[in-house]
Amino acid sequence: MNIMTEKSLDDAVNAEMNARTNEIIKMRGDKVTVHYGEKQALFGVDLDVRQNQVTALIGPSGCGKSTFLRCLNRMNDTIDAARVGGKITLDSEDIYDPKIDVVELRARVGMVFQKPNPFPKSIYENVAYGPRIHGLAKNKAELDVIVEKSLQKAALWNEAKDRLNEPGTGLSGGQQQRLCIARAIAVSPEVILMDEPCSALDPIATAKVEELIDELRENYTIVIVTHSMQQAARVSQRTAMFHLGYLVEEGPTDKMFTNPDDKRTQDYITGRFG
Amino acid sequence: MTDISLDTLTASAARPRRDIGLKKRYAAERRFRLYGVLAIAIGLAFLAVMLTSIVSKGYTAFWQTTVTLPINFDEKIIDPSNKRATDPNVLITANYPKLAEQALIEKLGIDPNNKADVRKLKGFLSDSSRVQLRAIVAADPSVIGTTRNVDILAAANLDSAFKGQIDLDVPESRRKVSDQQVEWMNKLKAEGVMAEHFNTGLFSYGASSRPETSGVGVALIGSFYMMVIVLLLALPIGVAASIYLEEFAKKSRFTDLIEVNINNLAAVPSIVFGLLGLAVFINFLGLPRSASFVGGLVLTLMTLPTIIIATRAALAAVPPSIRSAALGLGASKMQMVFQHILPLAAPGILTGTIIGLARALGETAPLLLIGMVAFVADYPKTPFDPATALPVQIYMWANEAERAFVERMSGAIIILLIFLMAMNIVAIVLRRRFERRW
After folding, report:
1. Residue B332 touches chain A, beta carbons under 8 Å
2. Which of B105, B110, B122, B114 lies closest to B71, judged by CA?
3. Among partner residues A115, A169, A183, which is closest to B329 by beta-carbon distance?
4. Residue ranges per domain, chain B?
5. C-alpha A91: how far from chain center
6. Which band of pLDDT confidence, cut at 50, 70 and 90, is reported for residue B4?
7. CB contact under 8 A, A187 and B327
8. Hey, is the C-beta of B253 within 8 angstroms of any chain A C-beta?
9. Distance between CA A151 and CA A128 in Å, rounded?
10. CB distance B328–A115 less than 8 Å?
11. Which UniProt keywords apply (chain B) (predicted)?
């Protein structure tokens, strides 16, 4: 009886905490512009990413949603011709500030890519790589724990626990993508960016990854780029619609899919263009 | 119902077939295949001709004729005045070939007083008996006064005659072995005294004016030193340069210029590198002439562009997704390169390096200019001692007229080809084994 009340009390506290944290803005884009050489890819995007929520970025191909996503952990830095303007903050800190170290930023803002890209190493090594380079484990035992927890969180532990030393590239496409998610989780990021994580997967694997995304929301803030309207509707709490480099509109997913303000959003989600 | 379906069937059968040029297209394809097969056949034919010519001329170089003689280490010939206890020079300057000659006279049953016959014996045994017998005596002076069986090398002409390379139908005055010598040779052969053995000397002897005692020993050591130097210098420098250019340097006019220059350097004739080596390493830096160290430096310069081009290609072939994965996890650029890109590019780098080394191993022209085309009889103890290289040894033997040298030249070519083939096979095996697919 005593335990029961404590548990329900905990739940209540958690629920309240969640309600409050929902309003915390984890990352904020302020008039973000991106140029690839002469070509401008993003035009003054203002977008907030809320903590412990899934924010979906939708829009037709070439609309700048992936470009925006790649600004959030400065992956655009690797492209020589890319220039980023405006301001992006993580916990109110400007991530393009010279004082911010890009390596540290990427440890805080992890990324999962469109095509599953496990390292051609063992499953264990794939997950252990991040914690190892960041020195998150003091010894092998700690590392083992991190690997196991990450694989569990990525819902891959049961399938992978007996074959940790087999190459990660030997897994199926869906398993590889979950391995990549486990690898991203292993460094305990605050935000996970996902760039069309299911576009190379079959419907069953997609369902598994989507389920996983929903679970991960509890501990992480997630930004996901997707071409699938249904996916955005299923997994996200907020949706942002991009078109031709502009942010068309942004709001709670329910509202975006039922009663969008902008006609372009309406047309896009009903399949009239894009 | 059936009528209708029949109708439609016949209608579709009757529909005129369009001429879409299928015949022509297939003919063109067949022609192209034929050209391809012809091209390969021509290439293979040339290769076959070259290999048969080399092997047929050269395989005999791996056998050497020796005469097994009971040598009586006669004190009267070695030390006639019995002074060896006080004067060690006696044992060095003694007339050892005389011992071999006497043993041969005895074996053939010639009258030692028949001066004409004894004179004909000259040129039957190799003069190397002097060195060989002296070594036996030096190792164990107590051998003096006893008799012992020793394998003495036959002289080069007799060796050629024994292998059947001298046409005995040519009049005696126009060939290098006399009828009498042939008769003795056949007699010794019948007795089993004169026989062919595997020619280990080919691998151990250095340069010599006598074909039977010349070999590729010095050249092998010289080539080995050079390969080690090339590997130690060209691989790290080449890989470091490639990694910097491919992964770290920002693309600019300057890097474009460097890239063009590297590609040009790969096409520069090797003799130009030889001239550079002569001017810089020998004349300016004062490094020793004919040394394998300088040869190694020159070949390093020559191999560098090859290694850089191969390494850059291997680095560029690593999929960008691996780079993104590493960077996305927060790996620094250095960690990305050394923990992910380099291991994946290693098979390609190794293959390129081995092919570069193989090219360097077969290079002759630059070595001629830095003086590695010398008559070197002693083993080079360090890379700074005078040495030759395998291809240069081939070049030097190609300049000799004697049949036995031609044979050795072909033998050396076979040795060089075997090394090159082994290196290329290693390159292929490495590539097969470590190649990864994505």
Report:
1. yes
2. B105
3. A183
4. 62-199, 217-434
5. 16
6. low
7. no
8. no
9. 11
10. no
11. Cell membrane, Membrane, Transmembrane, Transmembrane helix, Transport
